[in-house]
Design brief:
Helix content is 15%, strand content 36%. The chain is of the alpha+beta class. The protein has one domain (3-144): Ribbon (Umud Fragment, subunit A), CATH 2.10.109. Strands 1, 2, 3, 4, 7, 10, 11 and 12 form an 8-stranded antiparallel sheet that branches. Strands 5-6 form a two-stranded antiparallel ribbon. β8 (103-104) and β9 (111-112) form a beta hairpin. The longest helix has 18 residues, at 3-20. The protein is elongated, with a radius of gyration of 18 Å.
Length: 146
């Protein structure tokens, strides 16, 4: 194969991969131990929300930021724990970080809970985006998540 054809094929392959996949750096501890702060991940751009999938979602409290969370409950399912009991509305999902501990985390000594559905409620399906499919960096943490 001539050199020009190889270059065209390489460019075409990169374009197709970029159309379906993306790479980003995790900037949070909310998904520990599954995802650690500074892990590099590959995400799939076109995936429907499903239980236990890890997705990027729009932060309901800050339009400039995305969060990474695990889908726990689907539309129509009942959520019951020590604090709440209700049914997830249609076209909404209940999401949690894997690091679900409560901790004394601010300067005022107040109890802090991870930013997830426990603090902002179920998220609409329109706020759920890319699915995390692979941790690839650092190499010792590399694994498939899909």
């Amino acid at each position: 194969m001539c050199f020009k054809r190889k270059i065209v094929w390489i460019i075409l392959c990169i374009a197709v991969v970029n159309l379906f996949f993306g790479i980003t750096k995790i900037k949070s501890d909310s998904m520990v131990p599954t995802l650690w702060d500074s892990d590099r991940v590959l995400y799939f751009r076109y995936s429907s929300p499903e239980r236990f999938g890890i997705f990027f979602i729009d932060d309901p409290k800050n339009e400039e930021r995305e969060l990474v969370k695990r889908i726990i409950n689907l539309p129509g399912e009942r959520i019951q724990d020590s604090r709440i009991s209700y049914i997830v509305p249609q076209n909404h999902y209940y999401v949690l970080g894997d690091n679900r501990g409560e901790y004394w985390g601010n300067d005022l000594g107040e109890l802090v809970i991870s930013l997830d559905s426990r603090s902002f409620g179920p998220v609409p399906s329109s706020s759920i985006h890319e699915r995390v499919v692979l941790v690839f960096w650092p190499p010792e943490n590399a694994r498939w998540l899909w």
